[in-house]
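Risk register update: the risk of archive-format incompatibility is retired. Evidence:
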Amino acid sequence: MKLIFSIALTAAVITSIVATASAAQPSSQVLSSNEIAAKAAVTPPFSEERNAAVGFVATQNFYIGRMALTCKPLLGQPDSFPSDMVAKWRTANGQYVRAMTVYLSDLVKSIPDPTGAKDFVNYINNTVQRNGQGAVNDAIKGTDEERKTACMQFVINFADGRLNITEKSPFFATLQNLASEYGR
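Archived output:
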């Protein structure tokens, strides 16, 4: 449940730059790089809902990798464990990962100011990493035995597909639409 909250928080934070910078500006004012990026992020076909949905996918992807990296020594897994887990998750959720990648690429390309585009990418990356790491920290804490148990539960949940995107996932309808549109 904390992971879902953290992922939803990630999505909310990603779109907060949009809300802040897209406040009505008199047309005579010159927009900053961040304001130009924020405006592009809510200009169709982009939207706060879509931004939140791809934020969810990005955070879930980060979470899988960071959990696997954190659990690797606790479970005595090989060095390839994190990359193998991410690759398997990306394969199982390929249509959503592709949609996220193409959508974000198109969004960044739509930002006419190179500095704003770079700042926007950095903001998204930092937010996803911060919230993904927070979810990992919430999941893996306590004694070594409790941490190892949490890692074993992660592996079980992963193997059972509980970490995949399904109709029960946040933003599922939006992700389905994005996959139809961008999952090329």
